[in-house]
Design brief:
Multidrug-efflux Transporter Regulator, Chain: A, Domain 2; 3 domains; mainly alpha; rod-shaped; 12 helices
Amino acid sequence: MAWSTRQLAELTGTTLRTVRHYHEVGLLEEPKRRANGYKQYGVAHLVRVLRIKRLTDLGLSLAEIAEMGDADEHPEAALRRLDTELAATIERLQRVRAELALILREAAPTDLPPEIAPAAARADLSDADRSYMVVLSRVLGPKGIQAYANLMTNYQHEPLMTEFDELSPEADEQTRQDLAERMLPHVRALRAEHPELRTADEDAPQGAKFAARTMGQAMVELYSPAQLDVLKRVGRVIAETPVEGD
């Protein structure tokens, strides 16, 4: 039995280019040629091409097939490795699908991890607050991220905080002081309700100091000097006149 390259490709469901590539990479032995110079393939070539095609369809690379050589023994080790890789891929894809379902269901932001994204979506955060949450999600550990997720789960955006969000960078001394005084009870109430925020950086992957420094840098970039001044005034009063919950 002798077939041309085109006939071999048709019989095996491949292409001329594929058969020639198998020759180039050393997977398929060159056949004998007729007197007119045309290649003539036999049954062994047919079986070899079908085996290569079957293994590539299963997911093995040509390099892995080459490592097996020409032997026709059952490639158990390679198939078991492939099975392990496929199991890990399936697990990753299932996790991605679960996250996609969460994002679609909750209209959650895609730049936040799933542990905090739904709560952030429901909290009606300002652009600056949301960007700050993105930074937090990168420097805090699971415990810290959960602490902020808890904070936002039942958070209602107070008109007072809208006033803070819209505070003019040129706000005068009296305006900033007045806003700080009115924000103080709200901030204290949040701190009392969520004491876990005080230790949110305990499990930060790169340490509490790195987390604090990064969060501080983010605040300087995201909030105006006037807003930062208001927060400093609130923090100063809490530090100087602590009450239960502080």
